[in-house]
Write a structure and sequence with these properties.
Blueprint lengths: L8 H5 L2 H10 L4 E3 H7 L5 H13 L3 E9 L2 E8 L8 H5 L3 H24 L21 H19 L42
């Protein structure tokens, strides 16, 4: 069992199955492990039980209530959203290998969720407004920071919306990183004296 004081959210969340469990518990849901197994039907039940135990032992999942079912105790868990957030200092201290591992876990979780959606009876990407577009953007540092703040401003109020009969869960994933090395500083002088002269060739 994890020691709550010795394991942070980053260590736990860099795993695709645990990421999917956290996503499934978002929005105030309280679920039993059996319900999570049904939600993650493509994952072996023993795997779901093991990762629920790890998340609960570390405090990311809390027991909402429990009852006896056929002589066994059945627990319903809810997400501790404060514990399920990566501390900014921990995020800033991630190594390049940590980022490589984390990105692989996030993409693996995303791919598994998308395949589970496509395997669902009645899946209709057009009707469900499914999107996985990519937009190559040319931005300076200030524009990139402004874009991130605009996305946060749009998403934050939506994260607070509780599940209701008229709402269904939607997974939004943002990926943002430079695709080329930053340009060399421009000192105002062309690197080749012929670069600013039209030769007529």
């Amino acid at each position: 069992m994890w020691d709550r004081g010795g394991v942070d959210a980053l260590d736990l969340l860099l795993h695709p199955v645990r990421l999917r469990i956290v996503n499934a518990m978002w929005g105030g849901h309280a679920r039993t492990t059996s319900e999570l197994c049904a939600r993650l039907a493509d994952v072996p039940k023993t795997t779901v039980y093991r990762h629920v135990g790890l998340l609960a032992g570390a405090g990311l999942l809390e027991v909402a209530d429990e009852r006896r079912v056929h002589g066994a105790v059945e627990r319903r868990f809810r997400l501790n959203r404060e514990r399920a957030a990566v501390d900014p200092d921990a995020g800033a201290a991630m190594s390049l290998d940590d980022h490589r591992h984390g990105f692989a876990a996030a993409v693996a979780a995303l791919l598994a969720e998308f395949n589970a959606y496509l395997d669902r009876e009645g899946a209709d990407p057009a009707a469900d407004l499914v999107s996985y577009k990519q937009f190559p953007l040319w931005l300076d540092d200030a524009e990139r920071a402004a874009l991130i703040e605009q996305i946060k401003a749009l998403v934050r109020p939506l994260l607070a919306k509780p599940p209701t009969p008229g709402r269904s869960p939607v997974l939004l994933s943002t990926i943002l990183f430079p695709t080329e090395a930053p340009p060399a500083p421009d000192d105002g002088e062309p690197s080749d004296p012929r670069a600013d002269r039209w030769t007529g060739d």
